[in-house]
Amino acid sequence: MLLGAQKRRQEEPRENTVTFDDRMDENDDVVVWRPIQYAMASNRRVLVVDDYLEAAEALQMLLNADGFECRALEDPFAVCGMACEWQPFAVVLDIKMPGLDGLELARRLRADPLTSDMLLVACTAFASREDRARAKAAGFDAHCAKPLTPERILRVLESAAALHAIGPP
Q1: Which site in 8, 99, 127, 129 is 20 to 30 Å from 167, CA atoms measured?
Q2: Beta-carbon count within 10 A of 132 CB
Q3: Helix (H, G, I), strand (E, B) or coil at 43
């Protein structure tokens, strides 16, 4: 039975699915550590945070075109307030930002009851095994390696949004 399950899993197109995987393979572009839950996707709002504003705005345009309601921030100090007020289902964070990095932002978002259940996605060039371990320890649910292609981040966000569209289990 196990061999059949493995064979089916190998036959599925990888680019169309996001799976929970606790391993940290340096060859994977996208790693999801925590299973995406129905409660995480109560809306299609996504907050994108990157100190390189052009990158944040480009991702915002992509997500808006795909049917998400997206806001972009370059100021890491504004993230927690915006997340509490606007209540996105997901926050996509760069890791290396001046003044307040994405790891500390993830810790702060996890510590606040108003933001603790949000889907946190690290979107960063820091993609070694150690970098991913630090992101997971800080509270991120997923890690997307840069350079980012649209398919990578859309796989994660669409999977979460699809759960909400289907309804609770």
Answers
A1: 8
A2: 22
A3: coil
Per-residue pLDDT of 22-50, as tens digits, reads: 443 444 567 777 666 544 566 889 999 99
* Predicted TM-score (pTM) of this structure: 0.78
Domains and CATH numbers, the chain: 47-166 (3.40.50.2300)
Q: 133-162 pLDDT, tens per residue?
A: 999 999 999 888 888 777 878 888 887 777
How far apart CA 142 and CA 166 sit, in angstroms, is 22
How far is it, in rounded angstroms, from Cα 123 to Cα 140?
Answer: 10
pLDDT tens for each residue of 109-128: 999 999 999 999 999 888 88
CB-CB contact of 122 with 102 (8 Å): yes
Q: Which helix (H) or strand (E) holds 162?
A: helix 150-166
The answer to whether the bond into 113 is cis (omega within 30° of 0) is no
In this structure, how many other beta carbons lie within 10 angstroms of the beta carbon of residue 146? 17
